[in-house]
Design goal:
2 domains, 31% helix, 254 residues, 9 helices, alpha/beta, four-stranded mixed sheet, Hypothetical Protein, Haloacid Dehalogenase-like Hydrolase, Chain: A, domain 2
């Protein structure tokens, strides 16, 4: 929080950008961000005002939910404020918790155990959703979903872990985090040359490619590190603060 405050005091706008929906980001909102990009760019809010909103169409939702379920792929879906996951998913994570190679697997386990209001799929009411996170036992189960959905959606697939578990995100081709940066900069009349982005996962690829300076966390994806302009320490070692410091975003430090 100190880094955010100092960067803002130095005249910078600090925006939270995540693949998660607004509801799952609620623990971070008290940090006082100027804006929030949620749902991987499907929702953009700034100063309390919604400036971009693009959920899936009903037809897209029905098609996506069906093809993943038919192929035995675990689904987690997000509306603007709620998150729902397939029954049995938590047990699946617990069974594979020993896999150190799959950071997303461990991340989801921590989130579920932290009780971030992730509801069972049986409670989903059919309302608008923005994205879908999937986890599969091997890539073969993803063959039909990719064939059926690739015209309208990008598949952001993380590295396969040592147990053959594949996870990733289904992202509408109408947006991604990089486009969110462009849309927000245009709205604020800020040149892209002044944009700096921090990320750690392959769903941050376009984000880092779009910003003038792309920073990957040391604990992030090896592939993302290859395209990043800078590497900063992990969050557990005050990485964001030190990254802000490294790039001169903190102004006159207190």
């Amino acid at each position: 929080m100190k880094g955010i405050r100092q960067a803002q005091k130095a005249g910078h706008k600090v925006v939270l950008c995540s693949g998660r929906n607004y509801g799952m980001l609620s623990p971070l909102l008290p940090y006082g961000f100027d804006g929030v990009v949620s749902c991987a760019g499907g929702c953009i809010e700034y100063g309390g005002k919604m400036i971009y909103d693009c959920p899936m169409t009903p037809a897209q939702q029905a098609k996506a939910l069906d093809v993943f379920q038919r192929n035995g792929v675990y689904r987690t879906i997000g509306s603007r404020y709620r998150t729902y996951t397939d029954e049995g998913f938590k047990e699946f994570l617990a069974e594979n918790a020993g896999s150190k190679a799959n950071s997303e697997l461990l991340r989801w386990r921590v989130q579920i155990e932290s009780e971030l209001d992730i509801r069972p799929m049986a409670e989903y009411d059919g309302g608008a959703i923005y994205g879908l996170t999937f986890m599969s036992r091997g890539r073969e189960r993803l063959r039909e979903p990719i064939e059926a959905l690739q015209d309208e959606f990008n598949f952001c697939i993380q590295d396969t872990d040592a147990c053959g578990i594949v996870n990733g995100e289904l992202i509408n081709r109408s947006y991604h985090k990089g486009l969110a940066v462009e849309r927000l900069c245009e709205y604020l009349n800020i040149p892209l040359e002044d944009a700096v982005a921090f990320g750690d996962s392959m769903n941050d690829l376009e984000l880092l490619q779009t910003a003038a300076a792309g920073v990957c966390m040391e604990s992030g994806s090896p592939q993302l590190k290859e395209i990043a302009d800078f590497i900063c320490p992990p969050v557990t070692e005050d990485g964001l603060y030190r990254g802000f410091q490294m790039l001169g975003l903190l102004g006159q430090e207190e």
